[in-house]
Automatic annotation (TrEMBL):
This is 5-dehydro-2-deoxygluconokinase. Keywords: ATP-binding, Kinase, Nucleotide-binding, Transferase. Pfam families: PfkB. SUPFAM superfamilies: Ribokinase-like (SSF53613). Belongs to the carbohydrate kinase PfkB family. Residues 5-302 form the Carbohydrate kinase PfkB domain. PANTHER family: 5-DEHYDRO-2-DEOXYGLUCONOKINASE (PTHR43085:SF49), HEXOKINASE FAMILY MEMBER (PTHR43085).
Length: 310
């Protein structure tokens, strides 16, 4: 793939979604397979909006790893930087659509996930420094060697272009809240944009109050903070002002992937040079569309679908 506009770094997996909604996992009889993982989904969402996107991650030497590469290419996302951890398995994630709006997840990522083994030799350093938009995640610093590699990436990039941190907090990946806060806080000093929900903001900056969280995020020197407030919309904050973008009401089928659709649209808006409010409105609509669908990557909307909702 020719010069990328978006490079995301981090989590990949194969999502298995119940085809029966509103029942416990024990009562599910059939599942549908989909590409998943925050960094991976964001790249797919950006590609769906016409961006040249790639993902830096790793899989296992198994059939699911083959599936990941083939699915990425099918979505128009470069798999050039998908490595292989020879002794680990590609992660599988089961979701329980009970409740559909906030489905519990069951991660199979032990003893560790391949995407947490990204080392210095796996990183395309010139691309990391020069790509117009680099996307990193909180999960990416939950374990070594990925933690050290992601730190080196941010230090090497030195806030060049758009450098986005998806707070992406999953408690099962961390030993405790204090460690998560320390590591994510360090990254805030090296990015230009931060995005997360109230819980993720509380982990990162110690408060779930959207206004206070936005203020604390901006204190790290970032230029744009987006605090997702669920049914109350999105708080958009810059050093010059703040605004609340209203939500798009939809019938929720599955809340998973909505944040990643938001992320891909955010990347597209930043690269398009849109103002912060337009970026948030567009991203909020993208997230709402995915919440009204079952899958993650397969559900990412195109420009026409987003404009229709808006």
């Amino acid at each position: 793939m020719t010069s990328l506009e978006v490079l995301t770094v981090g989590r990949v997996g194969v999502d298995l979604y119940p085809e029966q909604s509103g029942v416990p996992l024990a009562q599910v009889s059939t599942f549908a397979k989909s590409l998943g993982g925050t960094a991976t989904n964001v790249a797919v969402a950006a590609a769906r909006l016409g961006r040249r996107a790639g993902v830096l991650t790793k899989v296992g030497p198994d059939g699911f790893g083959t599936y990941v590469r083939e699915a990425l290419e099918g979505f128009g996302v470069s798999s050039e930087y998908v490595g292989t951890s020879p002794d680990l398995l590609t992660p599988v994630v089961f979701c329980e659509l009970n409740p559909p709006a906030d489905p519990p997840l069951l991660f199979y990522r032990l003893p560790t996930a391949p995407d947490l083994t990204i080392g210095e030799d796996d990183v395309p350093w010139s691309l990391v420094r020069d790509v117009p938009l680099l996307w990193v995640t909180g999960t990416g610093v939950s374990a070594e060697p990925s933690r050290g590699s992601q730190r080196m990436m941010l230090a090497s990039r030195a806030r060049n272009g758009h450098t986005v941190l998806d707070l992406d907090y999953r408690p099962m990946f961390w030993p405790d809240v204090e460690t998560a806060r320390t590591e994510i806080s360090w990254m805030l000093d090296h990015v230009t944009v931060a995005v997360g929900n109230r819980t993720e903001c509380e982990i990162a900056v110690g408060t779930s109050d959207p206004d206070e969280a936005a203020s604390r995020l901006l204190e790290h020197g970032i230029s744009l903070a987006l605090v997702k407030k669920g049914a109350e919309g999105v708080l958009v904050a810059t050093p010059d002002g703040r605004w609340t973008v209203e939500p798009n009401p939809v019938d929720v089928v599955c809340g998973l992937g909505a944040g990643d659709a938001f992320g891909g649209s955010l990347a597209h808006g930043l690269l398009s040079g849109w103002d912060p409010v337009k970026i948030a409105r567009h991203a909020n609509a993208a997230g709402a569309i995915v919440a009204s669908r079952l899958a993650c990557a397969d559900a990412m909307p195109d420009q026409e679908e987003i404009e229709e909702l808006l």
